[in-house]
Amino acid sequence: MNILVVGGAGYIGSHIVKQLTDSNHKVIVLDNLQTGHAEAVTKPATFIKGNVKDKALLRELFSKTSFDVVFHFAANSSVEESMEDPLLYFDNNVSGLIALLEVMNEFAVKTIIFSSTAAVYGDTSEEIITEDTETTPKNPYGESKRMMEKIIQWCHTAYDIKYVVLRYFNVAGADLAGVIGEDHHPETHLIPIVLEVPLGKRNFITIFGDDYDTKDGTTVRDYVHVVDLATAHLLAMDYLLAGNDSTIFNVGSSTGFSTLEIIQSVEKYTQQKIPVKYGSRREGDPHSLIASSKKIKEVLGWEPLYTDLDSIIDSAWKWHTSHPNGYKNEQ
Ligand code: UDP
Description:
Blueprint: E1 2-6, H1 11-22, E2 26-31, E3 46-49, H2 55-64, E4 69-72, H3 79-84, H4 86-106, E5 111-117, H5 140-159, E6 162-168, E7 170-172, H6 190-195, E8 205-208, E9 220-221, E10 223-225, H7 226-241, E11 247-251, E12 257-258, H8 259-270, E13 276-279, E14 288-289, H9 294-300, H10 309-322
Parallel strand pairs: 1-2, 1-4, 2-3, 4-5, 5-6, 6-11, 7-10, 8-13, 9-14
Antiparallel strand pairs: 9-12
Residues 79, 170, 188-190, 193, 205-208, 219, 221, 259, 282, 285 line the site of uridine-5'-diphosphate.
């Protein structure tokens, strides 16, 4: 298959690119390197630097290669930043998608796998979230992703664009070969931040809020291994190409860990004490997000292999200890 991966130099996109090329697909990555790294695009994928909003560039790419499928990962994805600058999120995320869909349509490329998020659900009273749970995003990031989902769904109705939307819960870990991993500047995600303490880069962790209505008062999230997430994308592609109906799937582990439990697990794994301070709640944070992954397991036959927290921490730890500066200084 000829596959365009928009945002394929980022943390999640690069893991999908690797699995696609390992499965002998021909992959072209378009990424503006705003948060991604050219070094994260593993060979033999082709890397092209550019913005998804650049329709002239998209047209050039689509006229040179007849793509079978488009994967779309390029988006701003920080909850905190989105609360401070919502227009940035609506502009980059939503208008980037519109440009991509326009050009896909012009070139009659009708298949898209879209990277969405559990942030579309917001605060819900449902303990386990299914794809039918009401979406009430609590921050502009989640709202922008929900808008993008809806745009894709209307393009399905109007232009017969076929889609799978994957709503990721909290993605963590790194490729097991240790070649690619997570490298954000600044890092805002919990697991890599906690690892910075035993790595000697940070002295303590601030827990954002201890008065949530959860088991220990700290926020609860569902952590899924990035390698298992990548597998879900390949299954989603095969599903669409086999002529199945467009749909939405949650991708999570169906287990909730509190922020405190994550810190304790890293302490146990690294055998190092991680000092904790309690701060105020981070604006826009839902109290608990736990997936039901029943649908993706039943429909796509997705079977996550790395479901215990230790295997996530282990792969992330190996990546960070072997790449103390992330991709910096790499050839
Ligand atoms: N968190 C925290 N301290 C940190 C980073 C994150 O307490 O330094 C909490 C955050 O409030 C959230 C959870 O950890 O409830 C997971 O945060 P992350 O940014 O990794 O993912 P999110 O669920 O926001 O997408």
